[in-house]
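Journal club side-thread
Mid-discussion, someone asked how the predicted structure for our own chain would compare to the paper's figures. Pasting it here so we can look after the session.
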Amino acid sequence: MHLIERLEDVEKIAARCRISGPDVRFALGTLGGPAIAREVLRDLEVTQVPPALRSTVEALAASVFQPVDEAIRQIEHAISAHVDPEALFMLAMLLVRLGAVPRGLEVIGRAVGAGYTPVSTLARNYVFDPVRGDAPFAAIEAEARRRMLAASAVFEREGGPALLGMPPATRLYPV
């Protein structure tokens, strides 16, 4: 199951978060699957995308409009241009979606190791359904959860909830 199943869902999320732009389109297209990617790219003029983000948007477009080999080449180009673990994670999701599973999991493992902890996405996004029972994926998921719980503990111990006006010991995820 897709986390984002229809274009209306994309528009609602963007409106609710008061966000727009090519970075949002990239994220929603990656999380939502090929049909959503086609929709969010339909009206996007790539020349209007900031140069630093252009390769990621081009990689997403290639993943739905180009043959798999060309799409993987474009995604690898975008990966080589990034150090941001969230961007690397999203690009790696495209690799997994296209069937380049070992390379996709390698990049995802690198993103998690660099501090990006997408626990909910790893647990729920359809892209990972084919690898959920595989040891490499399970190790990545466990490391992401371990890092997220460690960060949550530091956040609580150092007064993060009070700083944000939250009740004490507010946990986003159960321990």
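Post-session note: Residues 1-7 have pLDDT under 50 and may be disordered.
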